[in-house]
Amino acid sequence: MAPVLLVGGWTVAASRQPPSFDPVADTVSALAAVGAADRWVMTLTFLVVGMCDIVTAAALRPAGACGRLMLAAASAAGMAVALSPQHLGGSVSHAIWASIGFGGLAVWPAGAWRRGPSVPWGLRPAVCAVAVAVLVTLTGWFGAELITGAGQAGLAERIAGAAQALWPLTVVLSCRFPSHAVSGSTAYAS
What we know:
Elements: H1 2-15, H2 40-59, H3 65-83, H4 92-112, H5 125-148, H6 153-176, H7 179-183
Helix pairs in contact: 1-2, 1-6, 2-3, 3-4, 4-5, 5-6
């Protein structure tokens, strides 16, 4: 549910903003900022998505305990972002919580990987390494956009955020539908 809720939340929240809001340039946090139109939509989205990821971390038993803890902590930081909205001129607490959340969601697969023949593919070391590389790269792009003011911070944040929301779902699906179950099935063989 988290990826759908996140994208749906920022889409609804953006639709309620004045025409001056630019989703390519303006961040998702601007949708929950003090003074934003119907800021409760994005605030609630941050809280519910954080809860979804915390539940996922608790239930994802095949993953390494360190990765599960990192996912839960990063998700809690994302919820703290909702409780410390941006203010005109910036907010130090918002920036700290957002950095912790984005950073943790980018690297949690590094603590979640496992070895062994029965490990779901989404938790294998090589797959987790690629996931971390992609998530860190996307998060780095977002950080670079914020620092340089190149005008695509909103786009970079949405792509990084969507990828970070999709990876836990991908891991869960790899646990629920292991690849060996399909290839090892002989129920329909003639």
